[in-house]
Amino acid sequence: MEVPPGRVERISDGGSEALRQILSDLHGMKFNGVLRTSVFRGDVPSQGVLVFRDGDGVLAEHRGAEDVLGATAVPEILRDASSERAQIEDTVTARVTRDILVPMAAPALAVSAVLIFSSMLASFSIPLMLGRGSGAQMLMIDVYYRFGQHGDFETASALGVVSYLLAMGAALVYVRRLTR
Q1: Residue 160: its pLDDT value, please?
Q2: pLDDT 10s digits, 17-50
Q3: What is the pLDDT of residue 97?
């Protein structure tokens, strides 16, 4: 099981009392992240991974002389962590997404938002499919009806300029704020 590397919160030595304290702490703080154990069983490296969500273990994998997954991996992980020679680390992975991945993707997300917004302004079919009943009125629907059914070209042109200015404003916000 490959889990994202995350930020290490603490590294502890193994032992039954240390493991009991760590599990109690993780459950008490509703930990979201990964608990890793590592120890040598003779000459064979043994590693365990427990994934926690809201303080409860949800996934488990143990790699050693034999690889096991799920509920059968938990006793092996506990056996490793109970050894005095074991190393136990808990890692927070949710912060990696929030602190690293989202800021890295911010320019791409902004481009998509501007593109979707501009496409919505330019489209007659999307607002028309949403309906023209008693709900909110879409700008491009007004343009369409003013032009097509009422023959009010002046108002339709003015609404078109408003939609152009909205799209231009979105593009300027993108250029000024996100391409520094």
Answers
A1: 84
A2: 887 888 888 888 888 888 888 898 888 899 998 8
A3: 66
pLDDT at res. 2: 66
* 175, containing H or E segment: none
In a domain, 156, yes or no: yes
Residues 170 and 125 occupy one common structural domain = yes
Instruction: With beta carbons less than 8 A apart as the criterion, state whether 31 and 55 touch.
Output: yes
HEC string of 85-152? Answer: CCEEEEEECHHHHHHHHHHHHHHHHHHHHHHHHHHHHHCCHHHHHHCCCCCCCCHHHHHHHHHHCCCC
The residue range of the domain holding 136 is 102-178
Q: Do residues 86 and 19 both lie within one domain?
A: yes
- Residue 151, Ramachandran bin (φ over 0: left; ψ between -120 and 50: alpha; else beta): left
Q: Which DSSP helix (H) or strand (E) runs through 46? A: strand 44-53
Note whether residue 2 is domain-resident.
Answer: no
Cβ atoms < 10 Å from Cβ of 19? 21
- What's the total number of domains in the chain? 2
